Recover the amino acids of this structure.
């Protein structure tokens, strides 16, 4: 399933040369959270390939630890999976890393753009097929029953505009509005909320994830894809809720749609991308023409990259890092 297929989307490239004057390995930090203070098992696969092939030293560091980020040539955002709980602090940290002189991937400007799901509206305006999304401003009192009736949606997904890992994400229909009201009020006390139609295709066919890495020529290249499925009677595909992910080779027509979406994302993103993952569902015809890949998320901050599902994925990621840092072979 490996691919060197580039999207054709170009972005500014600024290779960061390694300092070879001392002969010391280039120092790279992998940013985690305190719960996953060491690299995840999946990320460790990429770190192993990076350190085996290139003269580097990699250190996992919790993003909110008192660290001297200027010691590192680069900081790779990986399992910072609590950032949505303190988004202002996380954005300030990303800017701090860059001020220290370390290169951050993906950059702070991209983190800021991608942290709030208002970017979905940017992509929709640019022509990317995006799942229909209604944004409810913070502090608003909303009658969800009336909203669903107006939109013609039998069931909907409600989530915070800044969220990750299905945090405070609820599926509801007309019979669930009363039980869900306290959670929705809590969301709107802190941030905007998003309302999207529930897509049964997630449960029947699965949710696709397409992973891309910088190709060294100013574009993003497709690496591999997985198909994620929720546990029975659930709608969330994350492993924390019993979801599964399997390696699947996407049909050519579907990959072309993913490539086009990623090309637009790379064009609109306010900084160069080292990696990107897009999540979507193939429409059965209700919210888009049948066979259309409906984008649900563009994951540019701390996505799981599913290295374990593809034999060459860790090497492709390591190559992307090595090109950006002009690393010396091990």
């Amino acid at each position: 399933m490996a691919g060197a297929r580039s999207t054709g989307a170009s972005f500014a490239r600024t290779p960061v040369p390694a300092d070879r004057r001392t002969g010391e390995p280039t120092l790279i930090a992998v940013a985690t959270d305190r719960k996953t203070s060491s690299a995840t098992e999946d990320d460790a696969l990429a770190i192993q390939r990076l350190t085996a092939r290139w003269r580097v030293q990699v250190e996992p560091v919790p993003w909110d630890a008192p660290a001297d980020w200027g010691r590192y040539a680069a900081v790779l955002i990986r399992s910072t999976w609590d950032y949505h709980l303190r988004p202002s602090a996380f954005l300030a940290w990303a800017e701090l890393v860059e001020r220290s002189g370390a290169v951050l991937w993906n950059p702070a400007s991209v983190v800021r753009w991608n942290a709030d799901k208002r970017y979905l509206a940017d992509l929709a305006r640019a022509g990317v097929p995006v799942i229909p999304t209604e944004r409810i401003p913070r502090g608003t009192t909303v009658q969800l029953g009336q909203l669903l009736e107006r939109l013609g949606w039998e069931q909907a997904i409600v989530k915070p505009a800044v969220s990750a890992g299905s945090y405070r994400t609820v599926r509801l229909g007309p019979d669930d509005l009363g039980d869900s009201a306290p959670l929705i009020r809590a969301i709107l006390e802190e941030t905007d909320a998003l309302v999207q139609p529930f897509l049964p295709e997630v449960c029947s066919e699965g949710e696709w994830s397409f992973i891309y890495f910088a190709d060294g020529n100013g574009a993003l290249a497709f690496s591999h894809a997985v198909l994620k499925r929720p546990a029975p009677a659930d709608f969330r595909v994350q492993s924390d809720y019993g979801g599964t992910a399997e390696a699947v080779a996407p049909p050519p027509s579907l990959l072309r749609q993913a490539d086009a979406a990623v090309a637009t994302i790379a064009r609109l993103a306010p900084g160069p991308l080292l990696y990107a993952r897009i999540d979507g569902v193939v429409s059965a015809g209700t919210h888009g023409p049948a066979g259309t890949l409906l984008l649900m998320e563009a994951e540019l901050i701390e996505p799981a990259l599913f290295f374990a599902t593809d034999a060459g994925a860790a090497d492709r990621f390591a190559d992307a890092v090595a090109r950006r840092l002009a690393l010396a072979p091990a």
Observations:
- The radius of gyration is 20 Å.
